[in-house]
Each structure stands twice: as C-alpha cells, then as structure tokens.
Write a structure and sequence with these properties.
- The chain is α/β, with parallel strands linked by helices.
- The chain has a single domain, classed as Response regulator (Rossmann fold, 3-Layer(aba) Sandwich), CATH 3.40.50.
- 44% of the residues lie in helices and 13% in strands.
- It is built from seven helices and four strands.
- A four-stranded parallel β-sheet has the order 2-1-3-4, sandwiched between helices.
- α1 links the parallel β1 (2-8) and β2 (35-41).
- α1 crosses α7.
- It starts with a strand and ends with a helix.
Length: 163
C-alpha cells in the first residue's frame, strides 16, 4: 500500500481539497487497493474543524465528492507511516520537515513538483499553491491542486505500482 499525506497550514482548504481530488482520481483509476490518502495541518489553529466552505463549494462545482474530514495536525509519526508527504508551499515544507525531525528518506515534496510529470517524466522545482484562505481564489487553488494531483498519480503509476 502506498500512503500519501497532503499537508497545508490549517487542513481546511488546500490539503482537504487535495485529499478529495486525489481520492476521486485514485478511485476513478481503480487504484484504491494500493493507494491510501489522508491530509493534515502543520498548525493547530483549525484542529477539529470541517473543510472550508470555499473548498466544499469548489469541489461540488467540479462534481468531486468531499471526503469526510475534520482538521488534524501532522505528527512525527506520520513521517514513518506515510510514503509521500506532500506540502502546498515552502512554509509548509519547512514546518513539515521540522515536525518530522528532518527528511532523511526524501519523502517530503511540494505538490506542484509533480504538476508536469505526465509530460516531462521529472519532478521539478515548483511554485507554491496559493492559500485561498488569504486569496479567496478557490478556483486558482483548484486548478493547481488538480494539476498536482494528476501529476502525482502519473508519478505513482510509474514508480510505485504494485508496492
């Protein structure tokens, strides 16, 4: 089983959007038996809260089911439990690395590092996924999340199938 954890600051906007989008893609491709998906926060600010209404609205518009979710915080144990820990921006990556006590196994990635994987077959330096909590632009976040999730799935198909 390949285990993927999506991480953002509060676990109510970007990472929950990723969890729902990626779960949808995994199921659509019949891969739910070998990919487990979850999400978490680097902060404690939203612990226990449901996904942001902007995330819920955007997923509904796209016809993607919302995964039942309440915000949780990433722990050091998550580093051992998950094969891929996917952050949304540079601050998330720094905080994830701090929480994990480093990244000796090279498991921590920025989501958009996978955005062009299907075309380039490479993981690349990537820009941040903007936080719609601040921008209010859930459409732009959804476009980035979709591109990153599609690329990550292509990467996993190429590297982890049958794990």
């Amino acid at each position: 089983m390949t285990r993927v954890l999506f991480v953002c600051h509060g676990n109510i906007c970007r990472s929950t959007m990723c969890e729902s989008v990626f779960t949808y893609l995994v199921e659509k491709h019949g891969m739910e038996n070998w990919i487990k998906v979850n999400s978490a926060a680097t902060s404690r600010e939203e612990i226990g809260n449901p996904p942001h209404y902007g995330t819920v609205r955007r997923l509904r518009e796209a016809g993607i089911p919302l995964v039942p979710h309440r915000a949780v915080q990433m722990t050091a144990r998550d580093y051992e439990e998950y094969d891929y820990l996917i952050g949304m921006d540079s601050a998330n990556i720094r905080n994830m690395t701090r929480i994990a006590g480093g990244d000796p196994q090279g498991k921590i990635f920025k989501l958009l590092s996978f955005a062009d994987y299907a075309e380039t077959k490479q993981i690349q330096e990537a820009r941040d996924v903007a936080d719609p909590w601040y921008t209010g632009d859930f459409d732009a976040t959804y476009r980035d999340v979709s591109a990153g999730c599609e690329g990550l799935l292509a990467y996993l198909k190429a590297h982890d199938n049958g794990r």
